[in-house]
Design goal:
By secondary structure, the protein is an alpha+beta fold. It has helices spanning about 15, 40-55, 120-125, 125-135, 185, and strands spanning about 25-30, 30-35, 70-75, 75-80, 80-85, 90, 110-115, 140-145, 150-155, 160-165, 170, 180-185.
Length: about 200
Amino acid sequence: MSDPERRRGTHTIREWLDQPEERRLELIGGEFVEKAPSDWAHSQAQTWLSTILGTSFARRGGRGAPGGWWMGLEIDIHLGENVFRPDLSGWRRDRVPAMPPGRPVAIRPDWIGEVLSEENASTDLVPKMRHYWRAGVAHYWIADPRTETLAVYRTTPDGFMQIVVAGRGETVRAEPFEAVELRVGVLFGDDPDDAPE
């Protein structure tokens, strides 16, 4: 069956694996969904989230850092019949003692962070959020460069519940990384060395 004749929602993980990695495809509900290329604002938010959280948590701890996590950028993750490539993801080392192997990683993350882009916002906020919750991801963060906000969600039996929403100029301690303060404005262009407004 040629691609134009193919019914929607019928792609398989095997077909996903056969695609060139540079296409940056996710497999959601049997459909290939291409991740939009990063613009400057998206890249900065992703870089700073990774830097702030990675410095404190992506290690075994020590020197004032809590540690305890494996952290990854754009790691392909296999959840159910879907394959996602979140902007950031993390696994607690007490649950996953060794670095999660393979592509796609078949071990559910404990935390996922997405940075919204105009092209992918509806995917990150609806089907991906739903699938992450169903798969048992405990924490989901959404950084939105357009509104300069960070929203933090925790899983509940009925879905993700928003527990924090903060804007530029605010400082938060947000689970599961509440051990460190995060100045939201740094994600959206504020100099990390400047004092908070």
